[in-house]
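Batch queue: ligand-bound targets. Current item pairs a single chain with magnesium ion. No template structures supplied; prediction is de novo from sequence plus SMILES. Inputs echoed for audit trail.
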Amino acid sequence: MSRKLKEDVVLKVDDLSIVYQTGRGDVKATNDVSFELKKGEAMALIGESGSGKTTVSLSLIRKLPKNALITKGEILYQRDGQVQDVLKLSNRQLREFRWKECAMVFQGAQNAFNPVLKISKQFEDTARSHGWKDKNAVRERALNLLKLVRLDPERVYDSYPHELSGGMKQRTLLALGVLLSPQIVILDEPTTALDILTQRAIIDVLNEMQRQLDFSIIFISHDLSLAAEMADIVATVYAGEIVEMGGVNSMFYDSVHPYTYGLLTSVPTLDHTQDLLKSIPGSPPNLINPPSGCKFHPRCEFATDKCKSEAPPFVEDTGDHPSACWHKDAVIQARKEKV
Ligand SMILES: Nc1ncnc2c1ncn2[C@@H]1O[C@H](COP(=O)(O)OP(=O)(O)O)[C@@H](O)[C@H]1O
Ligand SMILES: [Mg+2]
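Prediction returned. Tokens below.
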């Protein structure tokens, strides 16, 4: 069965819902998530810890933990006009898909390398397991990529992981991630364990790589300022739902969802990200028994009775910038009063 996607779309996620089955009940980690990713586009998923960002990204490469169940939805991937239904790939197809089409750099990626193998061996193994056996060709591509991430290529290629700093390992991992020319690179909090200067440097490198290699990015972060430097499109995730989505500028200057607005007004100064959400009271909801109506209502300064009983639809009011809130006008008004 072949499906049609718009020519410039590489990934289309439709009404995706995922639960984790636990002894205490089902954790509703992803609810009706839909988005499209275009070729060469960078999309950021932002939201607090526990909002479901990692769950969405793991589902895209079918790496969810065993207790996860996809209850609904579809993930379509397109290269050169050929569409694949990701949720229906066989194990063999999936192995190909994971490096050649969609690569993922995980949270805490520092430990992704095997400590007893030289970096060169890890590049060669990855290449070989995808049928690429010419070591010299692998080496040549690897050195080019290591240069692209601004490392001393020969030295790093010949090192053991422990000989590299955290930032160097992260860059090496980015190079490894694109070894097989994937169309999509997923980065889950790629800089969280790094200090702020190293974070910036990684973002620069990533922007440069993307310019040269033209892949699409899904960038997951709880740090809005980093996301802004990376992303063309920003989607805010709350309690397993995308509650607002739009171009990076429109999200920064014209966000209408109280949660995005709260994230924005709590952007920290240089020092760090953990206090990010001081200005949003309370904490993210329990996803086994999420709040009724709008899931954000218990923490929302704009909430009314309607918010407690009815979930607002995710709709576009202004241009290409949908959001789910009953009180967008009030948020816009509040913003005006602040300036
Ligand atoms: N294997 C699991 N079993 C049960 N619950 C899980 C599991 N993994 C994640 N969760 C829960 O799912 C929700 C979403 O988690 P996650 O996708 O990791 O969020 P984020 O990446 O935004 O921090 C959280 O409530 C988390 O506790
Ligand atoms: Mg996560």
